[in-house]
């Protein structure tokens, strides 16, 4: 998204193109010029990735046309209420300093893709993500999550990435997630008894990626319901090839 032009030129062009990139500019805050020089009704994509931004200004919510907001690689510890961004579909908060999931995220009813990877999250709130009924991809990889909440079956996502956490078990209710197809749990602490049989026998999941855990492929294949999981996996592979 980066462009080799001055900040002022980018701001001027943003009102015409609907795209503004202020990536890798060593910013500690989003410039006030963004508020005064960019047409808030036209900006659809905004990136300030690769800076040192500590907090977002409250006026960020005036950009009501935003569909993509990229905040990757900053030093955010929290974000303000963004619920006014009713059209926001993609929010990237990868590689910040979030210790908890900002509850303001749960007001983003149009959100389809949420990336919270590489933060400092120790857990997942027992409610919230289930409220985001349009959310399809949730990336929580490379955090410090030790367990999933029992109500995780309300998740409406198609892909859930939990790679690189500290999970020692998976909640059986994860099998109730109505659209879940891809589950990534590489580099955790999952042993043989940590994989709920229901996840294999009675779910919509057709791909579980678990490399880098104590559980072996042979042990995984011995879990009750593996034959049903394998049928779903094979059917999805055939569908992709047609």
Sum this structure up briefly.
With 242 residues, this protein is α/β, with parallel strands linked by helices.
Arithmetic mean of pLDDT: 94
User: What Rg do the Cα atoms give?
Assistant: 20 Å
**Between the first and last Cα atoms, what is the distance in angstroms?**
33 Å
Uncertain stretches: none
- Count of DSSP-assigned helices: 5
Write up what this structure looks like.
It contains 5 helices and 9 strands, in the order αβαβββββββαβαα. It has helices at about 5-15, 30-35, 195-200, 215-220, 225-240; strands at about 20, 45, 70, 90, 115, 135-140, 160, 180-185, 205-210. The protein is α/β, with parallel strands linked by helices. Strands 1-2-3-4-5-6-7-8-9 form a 9-stranded parallel sheet.
Write the layout of secondary structure elements.
Layout lengths: L6 H11 L1 E3 L10 H6 L7 E3 L20 E3 L19 E3 L20 E3 L21 E3 L19 E3 L20 E3 L12 H5 L5 E3 L7 H5 L4 H16 L1
Parallel strand pairs: 1-2, 2-3, 3-4, 4-5, 5-6, 6-7, 7-8, 8-9
């Amino acid at each position: 998204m980066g462009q080799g032009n001055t900040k002022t030129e980018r701001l001027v062009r943003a009102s015409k193109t609907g795209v503004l990139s202020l990536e890798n500019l060593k910013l500690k805050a989003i410039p006030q010029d963004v508020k005064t020089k960019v047409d808030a009704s036209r900006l659809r994509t905004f990136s300030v990735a690769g800076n040192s931004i500590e907090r977002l200004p409250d006026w960020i919510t005036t950009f009501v046309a935003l569909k993509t907001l990229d905040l990757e690689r900053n030093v955010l510890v929290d974000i303000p209420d963004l619920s006014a961004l009713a059209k926001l579909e993609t929010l990237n908060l990868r590689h910040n300093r979030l210790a908890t999931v900002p509850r303001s995220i749960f007001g983003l009813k149009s959100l389809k893709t949420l990336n919270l990877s590489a933060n400092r999250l120790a857990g997942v709130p027992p409610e919230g993500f289930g409220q985001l009924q349009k959310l399809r991809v949730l990336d929580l990889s490379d955090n410090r999550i030790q367990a999933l909440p029992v109500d995780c079956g309300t998740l409406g996502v198609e892909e859930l990435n939990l790679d690189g956490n500290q999970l020692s078990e998976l909640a059986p209710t994860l099998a109730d997630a109505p659209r879940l197809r891809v589950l990534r749990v590489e580099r955790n602490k999952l042993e043989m008894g940590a994989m709920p049989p229901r996840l294999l026998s009675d779910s919509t999941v057709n791909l579980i990626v678990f490399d880098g855990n104590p559980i072996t492929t042979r042990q995984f294949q011995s879990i009750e319901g593996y034959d049903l999981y394998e049928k779903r996996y094979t059917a999805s592979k055939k569908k992709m090839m047609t």
